[in-house]
């Protein structure tokens, strides 16, 4: 194939390819090489810090990178041709090692088993490449290769511990790029202004990209992450355990025992609403999810007046399913659970445990599959998922749920029987009895619930208007209940709901949700208590929900015909919003700017601008008396609307001013003559004359009507005529224009 | 330039609209494929926002190019700032961003995406930012020689307003770099190699910048006025035997130096062939070097060379070079030469005293349509 002879030399395409790949001239810039080397070493260190490279390998590759670059610089003009086959052998060997390692050790569904060999391969290739980087393009390839290594390091990072490495790496990268430009253009020094402007543009663009691009979501089941950090078996699979003491399956929520879950006492076989641990700010888990949800740990169906317990009701079928299929586990439908709505999207959540926790598998509603490195999984009758192994810090698992969340309009239109046909359209009478169970309740509770929902009656089409009743109770809660974690202790045997609703009316999520559930049951609406975590704070950088201990929560689940169990949180009336990185950044930015001390900032900015302007004026002030006179004349003329032209000599300009103010003509002429004489003739007037001319120019006022006057006392003649110093109109008036 | 090249035709507007719509469609397709159907409006907005201005800019750039000066290689000057050799860096950047996006969305890692956003911002800035210094680049020629020869480099001293790469276009020449300190004006020498004879009042150069990251060169073509005209003499043609005088069959005249008689003009160092009686002994004693009297050359018998250049440029160039060789040969023999040429202002006949003067005359010479060939 030949290219057009009119534009390209008459060479074949492959010759052009060969020519394009021919090594360029040796790169002499030490700065560029140093920056590139440091960028690669920082990227290797970043992988090391994230556990993707072992210490010996990281240290070896860093040392090899440094040594290789030094040797490449030394031999840049005379590359060792014999080294190339050795390097090629090393690279091919590294690649073969990667393939063998991945084939032998990679676990399906465990991305970490692939990423670690991948990081090792990248580090190996980069350190090998360091021995053959004679030209500028080769150094640039090294710099670009460090970016790939940073991508590998960042892929498994769930917090901001990588941030220092990113900052240093970015600094090295920018330094390297600037050094490359210096080498290309022969420039000396750093273009601080251009670099500062470019850095500002980079920062703005990066924020825009982060804000505008949708958060990444894993959509390929092959790489759903899961890994185990605590593989101690639990000797009684139906029990819960804290992750630290795997050998002691126990009630993790024992008030006087170590809970290991940030102080929350709800993840146990019962939920005592009278006891609350001290919830801290420590991060319990991080969640990457398609959307924010309540991360359910457990549900309770039986209320005994003070605690919720999970019953083993015979109508619920077998109390415990043992799932032994291995990851991924397929979660069967509970008898009281609806099949996923047709066409609904999957809600994928990946949980990264930051603390040892109970062996509960947190998940969004309607879990379908669980990717967890465990031999067995247990499923209780109410849908609680329990791992057969302890779950220590670092455990990662992924849950795929069916997105069955209905809109308020759908729930409001929900009728009995449901409009949607399904295998389990509604609760059986036995199930309904289970979720309407109440102990001996103060009749005032039912009366209160009835009174709150008095105006909401079943519509003509049979719609019980459950949603409206729930909304009414939530509204009553929000207007009559005060939230506080500091509540008086409950006396033994006292009914928690009675004392809450008809006593202090102060409580926290357990009291509020329990009271709501009890009131709903009292008016015939099936409800149950759920505990878990709220979504937590969303980090727009990591795209992870950061769940802290204080995010432990209890809420109500209500059965809706056709839609199954739906979450209601009477504690927080604010509906959950689906955050995007942009909205989070905008909100955080608005919050940040809203808290700034604007008055001092304004004062400082005004003072700084004034100082800069004063300094600029000081630096640009006319220093020579002739310049001062010229500046004074120009100022006076400009105030009179007679600005000086760009190519107008001072003499011409003064003639124009004199036409506007004839009485000042002689003085203007003398001033112009003296200035031009000083600028071009080398003559200097006597100091008194110079001072008089300067005073004349300083005090000159030419009104717009053309009658000029001098401010202050009359200074007399402005100076003496210097006839031999007039400049021609073609002379450049630089001196007299004020330098 | 023909009148058609700079004219605005409906084709340009249609092209701009089509490109804009195509960009918007591409934005929709990419956004839907990468981020879901909900982002289609954003993709369309981004596509149209980018596509329409780019297409309009491209259209106006083509228009401006149509009005600009034509370069020796046939193309026209591009006075607007434009990227050069952009395919590799742009394609590499796009592939890098796509690969990074693939890693981010396959791993689901927001941190990868955040770092990728930073990388993309650096790449975009690095690719686009050089357009600013390139657009603002100033270059000025502060010194140039008056004479040059076609095919030989001529050094032009230029002041550049920043670290720039200067590539001579018309006449062409090797790249030069105006390096040095980052701020202020820097000076560099740009070698141009005129291909043909002529008088140059200006040169066309391409000023390029890749600041601050060196990822892509942006450039624009500018015309730099020379501080004084540069006369480019033709390449000397083959040395042909010049007609010899009748009394010079033995070739003695070639060794004879002029000025053996006539009005005394002064003294000069001895040259081979000078007569012994011409030695000026007092000056010789004074300077320590043999000095001879010099007299005005005889005014008579000049060689009249009439240069008639053909209309074909290549042939005219060859003919001018041949005539230059003839003139130089006569001058070397000391024969006065009266050169008759046609210049843009009309026929000129004047004596040439040296090679430089002959080169200038031939540089200014234009073809004579009615001529029948050069005559010596």
Q: What is the molecular shape of chain A?
A: flat
Question: Greatest interface and its residue counts?
Answer: A-B, 62 and 49 residues
Per DSSP E runs of 2 or more residues, the count of β-strands of chain B stands at 15
- Strand order within the widest beta sheet of chain A: 8-10-13-9-3-18-17
Number of domains of chain A: 3
Defining traits:
heterodimer; A: 739 residues; alpha+beta; seven-stranded antiparallel beta sheet; four-stranded antiparallel beta sheet; 22 strands; flat; disordered N terminus; B: 376 residues; Immunoglobulin-like; six-stranded mixed beta sheet; three-stranded antiparallel beta sheet; 8 helices; 15 strands; 36% helix
Helix-strand layout with pairing:
The complex is a heterodimer of chains A (about 750) and B (about 375).
Chain A: H1 13-20, H2 30-49, H3 55-74, H4 83-105, H5 112-129, H6 136-155, H7 163-185, E1 187-188, H8 192-212, E2 270-272, E3 283-289, E4 295-300, E5 302-303, E6 307-309, E7 320-323, E8 329-330, E9 346-353, E10 367-371, E11 377-380, E12 385-387, E13 396-402, H9 408-412, H10 429-435, H11 443-452, H12 466-480, E14 482-483, H13 496-504, E15 506-507, H14 509-522, E16 527-533, E17 537-539, E18 544-548, E19 552-560, E20 564-568, H15 581-594, H16 598-619, H17 625-639, H18 650-660, H19 665-681, H20 687-699, E21 700-701, E22 709-710
Helix pairs in contact in A: 2-3, 2-6, 2-7, 3-5, 4-5, 5-6, 6-7, 8-15, 11-14, 12-14, 13-14, 17-19, 17-20, 18-19, 19-20
Chain B: H1 10-35, H2 40-67, E1 82-84, H3 87-107, H4 110-128, H5 131-136, E2 139-143, E3 147-149, E4 154-160, E5 164-170, E6 176-178, E7 180-181, E8 186-192, E9 198-209, E10 217-233, E11 264-269, H6 281-287, E12 291-295, E13 303-306, H7 313-332, E14 337-343, E15 346-352, H8 355-364
Parallel strand pairs in B: 3-10, 13-14
Antiparallel strand pairs in B: 1-10, 2-4, 4-8, 5-6, 5-9, 9-10, 11-12, 14-15
